[in-house]
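User: Can you help me understand a structure? I only have the sequence.
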Amino acid sequence: MKAVAVFPSRKTIEVIDHPVPALGGTEDVRLKMLEVGVCGTDREIAAFEYGTPPDGSEYLVIGHESLGEVVETGSAVTGLKVGDLVVTMVRRPCNHPECVACRAGRQDFCFTGDFTERGIKQQHGFMTEQVVDHQKYMNVVPGTLRDVAILVEPLTIAEKALIQVGEVQRRLPWGLTNQAGEEAKVNYQHNAVVLGAGPVGLLGAMALIAAGFKTYVYSRAADPQEKMALLASIGGTFIAAEQTPVEKLPDLGGNIDLVYEAVGASSMAIDVMRIIGTNSVFVFTGVPGRKGPISIDADLIMRNLVLKNQVVFGTVNASKTAFEYAIRDLEQFNQKWPEAVRKLITGRYPMEGAKDLLIGKSGGIKNVIHIG
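Assistant: Let's start by predicting it. Here is the structure, written out as tokens:
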């Protein structure tokens, strides 16, 4: 069967003939791959910045944002049937008995670093015609999401971040419960700033708006009018970084309660960190490229962290719960903002077009390889 693979040793990207996988256990499931999203991680792997083939293989089948259809199930599979649409998780646990995270099924918090990831690290990915995997890594999506379900995996980034934000902010009075066990009432709307207007940023903005945040997207987008119209249609606001300096952001809506970084630009992120508000949370999701050092006002940032009760954390990968929340919320987004959700997917291409998307100048928001 066909697959898109990177060969790190010779630095090439090819559409290859890849062996059809066999069911290896009674709880394995065979998928016919329908679509695979292309993201910044894929492009970095295609630039040979990282990406590790499985042991004994000279190539790595790329792709980790997936949508597949169940075509065969092992004898012990429950909860999945032929014809189901599924999105498969990316990370697999390490084998160290002492890794409490992986033993609990939370390999997104693996602390040994010996996890594997489909399409990224030591396991072949999804940009191929068929995939076999264990049922526990598969998440059923309703048929109504067929055209947009490829957005589930990038949405899990925001879902995991918001789960953690909720846990962190329970330390504050409005995050506590009263004696009746009810959430404390808040009489004002929290402000959120999203850095970056790519798919992760825009999906994050949708999640924040749905969660009740007054949401601004701050970006150096090449097509600000299109992003501005899309955000306005869902109740958000686009702010062009070229026209609005960082120092002016608090003037737009007051205290910045949450920053969701989704751009991977360290200079912009650190600049914004200087002006976040009291009790704020700053979430890093982007991974900057290897560039030269930047200058920062470390004293100011440290002073604000202490005196303003601020929290900064990074988040990567996602749990089963985050995938379930992403499917639930994408269904809500699709009902509430169907046109905006569909505009996030700006191109579908055959497998033979993957190389151009991976190494060329890609336009639009989310480009997708259409397989089945």
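Now, to help you interpret it: The chain has a mean pLDDT of 93. The two ends are 12 Å apart (CA to CA). Let me know which part you'd like to focus on.
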